[in-house]
Amino acid sequence: MSSSSAEPTTGNQITYADYFRRTPTKDGWFGKYGGIFVPPELASVMEEVRLAYETISRSHEFISELRRIRKHFQGRPTPVYHAARLSRHLGRSQIYLKREDLNHTGAHKINHCMAEGLLAKFMGKKKIIAETGAGQHGVALATAAAYFGLECDIYMGEVDVAKQAPNVARMKILGTRVIPVTFGQRTLKEAVDACLMAYMQDSVNQIYCIGSVVGPHPFPMMVRDFQRVVGIEAREQILEMTGNLPDVVTACVGGGSNAMGMFSGFLADPCEIHGVEPLGKGPNPGEHSATMTYGKEGVIHGFRCYLLQNDKGEPAEVHSVASGLDYPGVGPEHCHLLDSRRVQYKTATDEEAVEAFFMLSRMEGIIPALESSHGVAHAIRLARTSKEPLSILVNLSGRGDKDMDYVIEHYGTGERYVK
Length: 419
What we know:
With 419 residues, the chain is of the alpha/beta class. It has two domains: 143 residues, Rossmann fold (3-Layer(aba) Sandwich), CATH 3.40.50; 224 residues, Rossmann fold (3-Layer(aba) Sandwich). It is built from 16 helices and 14 strands. α11 links the parallel β9 and β10. The radius of gyration is 20 Å and the shape is globular. The relative contact order is 0.15.
């Protein structure tokens, strides 16, 4: 693939007061990550999307309509919740949850999907298409398609179709065509591959609504901007609740949309920010999806990022108990924030995530998505090990209805995890 933008240049130490005005560059670079690595026939399509987004994102009508949808259809603002019983159980640290699981459709994905639906209508598109892993992005986009009267195709790896049957049923009920992807590992990466191929076949009547802060410019920027509402709300809410900023802000990272949404509210603040990657079964190749921890620079799906690669330099096989996190790449802005040392990237294993899943369920009456459970697992670890009490704010990015059958089949009902 060729790049339609020049190579990036590295700048001086990052400051965050006007970060979102300067990042990314006009060519889509976050430091040395991002850009546009697409075939020539897609380069003009990316430019069309960019121009449309830059037009409507400054439009009073678009902003007003999106705010109306978020308030009256999605149920925003979502609350910040003090997990008091879990906190007492763990010690003196206090854990707070940004309840994105309370969004309509059950996850943060609806934040950018409704905005992408508005963009599709503005551009005169008849169909929206996308990939999905855990199914939450698929359900959210299917919901947007029904709301705006658009056709919708969702590409989903065959493994995830079986693993996330409740979300597949929801998509179909909403009128969306779910297309199983049967090549390769049959998971999220292959779903993206299949969707990109479909987009190249018809970019006139349909638009690809990417499900995370990944892909060629302008998608990482667009999805981040649509998710910033999470961090903006959370910052105001935690200050109102406690009078202070949290010591640590954390969220799970696969592609990284929920994390970028949360982190964006705190980049200029004196808080530690921790992204939590899936360590899966352990550090051996093919047993995890910890891209920031074990990856090296590469290009995937039209952008440059840290990438888990095999000996041939191809995207490596990956694993996570959470379907939405098993991706060998990661959003380019996360790579930039790692290199600048503004965000620290940690890991949580499958076992730690499942323990967190059951602890939050039993102690707070909140069943989290397995993806979100990685962030909760890290908060639990911090609370257990910190010598000083901490205030920890976790983005609870989704609810776990979709995961219950899988968890019960493989881990039972949690007796060995919650004592």
